[in-house]
Every structure is written in structure tokens, then in C-alpha cells.
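Quick start: load a record and inspect it. Here is mRNA 3'-end processing factor:
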Amino acid sequence: MPLIEFSDCGLYCRAGDFYIDPWRPVERAVITHAHSDHAHWGSKSYLCHNDTKPLLRLRLGPGNYQSTGWNQTVYMNGVRVSLHPAGHIIGSSQIRVEHNGEVWVISGDYKLENDGLSGQFEPVKCQHFISECTFGLPIYHWKKQEDIFSNILQWVLRNKEAGKSSILFAYSLGKAQRLLPALSAVTDRILVHGAVYNVHMALVNAGIKLPEVHRVSADTPKEWLKNSVVIAPSSAEGSSWLKKFGPLSIGICSGWMQVRGNMRRRNADAGFALSDHADWEGLITAIKATQAEQVYVTHGFTAAFGRYLNEVGINAKEVRTEFGNDEEDAHPSLPEGEE
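Running the structure step on this input writes:
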């Protein structure tokens, strides 16, 4: 029996009697990060990274939450468990599981570029590595974050000159926080949708330092709304909520914007390929660094990516899971995720 099983409830460690990112309620859950496709309500106890704990409380409500730092060992029924930086979003972790000399690493979602908030991805050597491949095609090759931010800021300044508000659609947990330091360079007032504000305050109240934001509400001064800079989730797209900002330009921050046709289908004025996931080269680099004997690929272009890995001598298998329903994981031609 392998140390990690692919069960109907999620990734299960029978020896330790716990699940990793279960999609149904279980007794004990170990959580890689707080996105809704990896953190589900109803389990009796949760173990996560310290920075993920306030986000789980926000999204799942009251519960039995235990947390730990990166590279710290926790024993669960004799099984050694440790969390390591995944670089995906704040608090995101890879889960290393070891028992009787067998080592598995469950990566959750990850990216290799250090965004300054989420921690630097840490390759963890193992025999078995479970990897996402959300952007597992060669066409997905990200520019450096600083270059993408430069393009976003130029777009905002052009909008200001034209008397337009700049509306940036970005996932409320992840890209919204990444955008704040950059946008602070071109505006002294960043307005945000309520969904973004709730995540922001959960993080700030937990001691994470982020630039100030202002929630858009009925009390927001009208003069603030014109020619403004706004971060909102994609659920605001096409809503009456946008009308209050006057003339506006819409920019979408998503890895799917690497394909220009997706921007046209979303009726956006600009698309910025800013992703919280690894691109094609990042996935391959991360997998090779683990030196894993067996790789399992899940949620994304699993068939194409798995086939490539096998062609280059890396043993890979496709695994079906219920991961992959957060806002960016959902392909733009499919229904949007939460918020």
C-alpha cells in the first residue's frame, strides 16, 4: 500500500490517518493553501501554515485550526509531516510526508518566481511528487513580475490621462495582494471590492504588512470614484457595481491572458499574464529538482504534460482530482470560480 492513496475524499495517508486538501469533510485535514478548491468546510481539524490560518477562518468559519511554520516537523500517528514554501499565494505550502523511508511531496499549487509575499518556492527531494499542471503547455511562458507590473502601471497612467478609471480584475486571494505594492507607485488611493477587502483585512489583522486599501461602499466619496484605481474579482465583470466609476478601462490579470483571444472573449481593454501558477518551464524545473522517481500530474493539461514528461524520461501518471476550480484554474471558456 503506498503512503499516499488517491481516494474519493482526496489524498489520504492511511498510516497517519489524515487527508491532504480533502474535498469532502474528514477527521483530519492538512491544507496546502486557502483557495476554495483546496480548502473545504466541514473537517473536524485542520493543519496549515501560520499565514493560512486566518484565511481558513475567514473562508470556512469557526473550526479547529492548528498551524505551523515552514520546515517544522509535526508527527501524525508516527508519520512525519512538514510544510515547505510553494510560492503560490501567502501561506501556500507543499506538504512533505515521510514514513518508513518513503517520502511523498504534495505541491498543491506553486510558482517559482518569488513575488515578495508568498515565499520562495523550495524544491523538496522525494520519491513521489504530486504536481499541478494548470499551465502545462509550452505556450505558457511568463514575463518577469517587474516587467508585467511596469506594463500595468503604464496602462493606469494612460487611463488617468484619458480621464478613465482603471479596473483590474484579479483574484481576491493572491494577485490582489501582489498588485498593491506596484499600484502604490502611481496612486495614493487604491479602491477595492468587498471580497478583496475582506481578505485584505484578515491578512492585515494577522500581522501581514500590506499597503492601505479603501473598500468601495455607499459611503465612499463620489470624487474618489472618478479616475480611480480599483481591484475587483471577476464576479464584478458586467455588473452594475462598475457603473459608479464613470468612464473606465478594464484590465484582467490572469495567466490565461497569455493567449490574446481570451482577452477579446472577456471584452477587456487590456490583459496582463500575471499568474500565481508555474509556467511550462517552471513546472519542468520544479519537477526535475525533486529528483522524484514517480510524478503524478493533476488539474490542468495533464495528458499533454504527462506525455512530455514520459518522453523525456520522467515517469509520470495522470491523476484525477477535484482540484482546479479557483478563479485562475478555470479556463476562460468555462464557468468562473468563486467570487
